[in-house]
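Exercise 7. Given the encoded structure of a 248-residue chain, write a plausible sequence.
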């Protein structure tokens, strides 16, 4: 048995990554790192045949690529995975693993090899249809040139919620994720929070995602209690967490 891990071009692992995406039918948070050139690709070979891959990105900086964030081995060769992972660590020089806990394969290695585990992000997927109708609130597309309140955490979205003649929330969805998923974002004006406005906005953005041929997903900080409650009320459910572990 000859196992080899070597750095290659992204195109050399795409056939394996298609299998990874098929096996993990959910939003991959760092999917865009590949096409943006923010990751290094490593192919895993047994006797010269590609049977898996690993992807490494920066933990805090784009240039400092020290974090394994994808790891896949073809099912027929999974018995080799423990040896392969150690070799990937050695060849790539990675010091961290950052994984989604709804992706059990890499997560298992984060727990097996990792120390100082931490999580700062909750991942959400769509769960159910809701019919929230807070009094006086209207969801609609943002009008061209419309005056919008100052945003502090999120960009201005293409959709708004109007209440008493004023825009009190905006939101939209990002498309730089693996198909067919989209990432919902929103911000509610401070004086209009805790009135069901945010949940209405997320509820209707979910509909817009589907009409655009996308499956809605979302994420928030682990300590953001209000955002978590808003997403759950709008029919999303917790799908997993982002987990960071030191592995050296």
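Solution.
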């Amino acid at each position: 048995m000859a196992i080899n891990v070597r750095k290659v071009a992204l195109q050399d692992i795409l056939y394996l990554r298609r299998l990874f995406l098929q096996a993990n039918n959910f939003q991959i948070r760092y999917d865009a790192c590949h096409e943006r050139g923010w990751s290094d690709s490593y192919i895993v070979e047994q006797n010269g045949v590609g049977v898996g891959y690993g992807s490494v990105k920066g933990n805090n900086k784009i240039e400092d690529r020290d974090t394994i964030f994808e790891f896949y081995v073809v099912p027929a060769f999974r018995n080799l995975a423990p040896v392969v992972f150690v070799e990937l660590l050695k060849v790539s020089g990675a010091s961290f693993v950052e994984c989604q806990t709804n992706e059990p394969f890499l997560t298992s290695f984060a727990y097996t090899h990792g120390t100082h585990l931490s999580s700062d992000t909750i991942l959400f997927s769509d769960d159910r249809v809701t019919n929230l109708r807070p009094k006086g609130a209207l969801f609609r597309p943002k009008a061209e040139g419309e005056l919008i309140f100052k945003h502090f955490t999120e960009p201005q979205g293409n959709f708004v919620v109007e209440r008493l003649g004023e825009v009190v929330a905006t939101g939209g969805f990002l498309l730089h994720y693996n198909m067919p998923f989209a990432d919902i974002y929103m911000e509610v004006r401070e004086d209009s929070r805790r009135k069901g406005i945010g949940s209405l906005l997320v509820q209707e953005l979910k509909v817009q995602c589907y009409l655009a041929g996308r499956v809605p997903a979302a994420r928030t900080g682990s300590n953001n209690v209000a955002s978590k409650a808003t997403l759950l009320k709008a029919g999303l459910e917790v799908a997993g967490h982002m987990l960071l572990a030191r592995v050296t």
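Remark. Residues 126-240 form a domain with the Aminopeptidase fold (CATH 3.40.630.30). Students should compare their own answers with the one above.
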